[in-house]
Amino acid sequence: MARVPYTPSLAENNVRKGFLEHSVYQRLRDELPDYLRLLFMVAYHTGARRGELTRIQWHQVDFTSNRIALNPGETKNGEPRTLPIYGEMREWLLMAKEVRDLNLPDCPWVFHEKGRRIQTFRKAWSSVYDRAGVPGLLFLSEQDLLDAAAKMERRLQSLGTVLSTVEQKRGEAWGKTGRTLLN
Question: Considering just the CA atoms, what is the radius of gyration of the chain in Å?
Answer without folding.
Answer: 21
